[in-house]
Fold Protein DETOXIFICATION.
Amino acid sequence: RRGWGQGWSGMAGDGGELDVPLLLDRADDGGGRGGGGGGTRAHTRLEEARACVQLAAPQSASNLCSFLLPLATVVIVGRLSGADPLPLSAASLAVSLSNVFGNAILIGTASALDTFAGQAWGAGNHAALGVYLQRAMAVSLVLSLFIAVAWALGLSPLLHAIEPDAALASATLRDLASLFLLVLFVGLTECLKRHLQAQEVVKPQLWVSAAAAALHVPIALGCVWVLGGRAVGALWGAGVSNALLFAMFAAYVWRRGDPRVWPGWTWRAWKGWGEYMRVAAPGAAMIMLEWIAFEVAVIVAGSLPGDPEVTTAASAILFNCVAVLFMIPYGLSGATSTRVGNALGRGDAKAARRTAVVATVLALGVACLQQAIMLGLRGPLPKFFSKNADVERAVHTAFPFLCLEVFFDNMQCVISGVVRGQGSQNKGAAINLVAYYCIGLPLGLSLAFKTPMGLTGLWAGLSTGAGCQTLGQATLVFTGDWDRLTRAAVERAALEDAHRGSDEHAGGEDETGGGV
């Protein structure tokens, strides 16, 4: 989760078409409004559940494949480090910082496509998807430039403030420079993934992600060899693997993409940034606020009373459990944002709300299943990660709050997908701010340092924050005015259409045409 990062009608056989019986056919080309939009339609909650699962399953598997890239990278660094803990510690800290101050920003801004592209596809404004994709990628490139400058100028003081070990701080800065290539392509790849996701094209994401995961280890080892056996080569390898992932996604869009969604290269991608950022900036804030809260907990774990090596190791085990289990609801979250956005773009408020209800019930079912699995593995799970009795004991003590955190994290993840589909990211960001920084973290830090609970108290605070986040997001979603949201979605899709017509009428449309 704090890692890297997620068919066409008339294109039978490409493995990407959603196959849901008893659903209405997708609209043909023509850009119709009011019922002529894209996206499959369900008439009952059972049909909706099946449509959500068929969209979510490939995305969840794709997320798991993507999770293997950072995991394998850290393992390679650890193996090459031998008895010296510095390279592994520096790489781990660099990955954490690159996630919060790089990936979270770019993934969050790309999530605006869940709103814009999803609603445009539902409205039948197919050509707008290509404009939104180009705009999102342009924003990602510009933000990447700002991130590079910020890393160069601002992270050194921050690192030396939070890390007293000068050698570790210097090694972390070096590793961060190695990770910039990865961050750059994470942002661009995320744009392509959400562009496809808005059209309910999900199976190709799985095959591409699986191919990148399979090739990552030899690529990383090759980069290590090129750099003379230095562990930092694995971090460069992660960037190369993500560049390859981007290239494969781009090749799929080029060769198999729906021609209706590509208006050619257009200068309109450099317009309308104000409207785009009004959705993208809160989307980035939603992710950053949550990720930073967890990274603060990671840093604090080493300062808790008791043996810092034990608390740090136990904390790492708990966070790894959260990260792996998060991949399943993350796929359902993507499916939910797509279904809600498509329905709102079509002007179908009833279908959008039905998707929200069904997705929440599915999330509850997945969460309960995960709880059953976790309870069954409560004994052997700590032993799988560590043979240290003190570490096992610390994990076992905090385990009930880990279960609570995973449960609420599952629920809020899917409900946040509804928020993105609605375009309500500004309110979602405010909820995350209150949940974690006014409630969760203050409570966790107080319990961790002012009571004997220690690490368990920290996780009690995190689980409370996740619970408040879930309650707030659910209240936002299920008390919202769906008719107003539908009107806003239709107007948003029509606005981009109007911009296109205005440019064409003024002769200002400068397109190069052709494929991506």
User: Anything to note?
Assistant: The two ends are 29 Å apart (CA to CA).
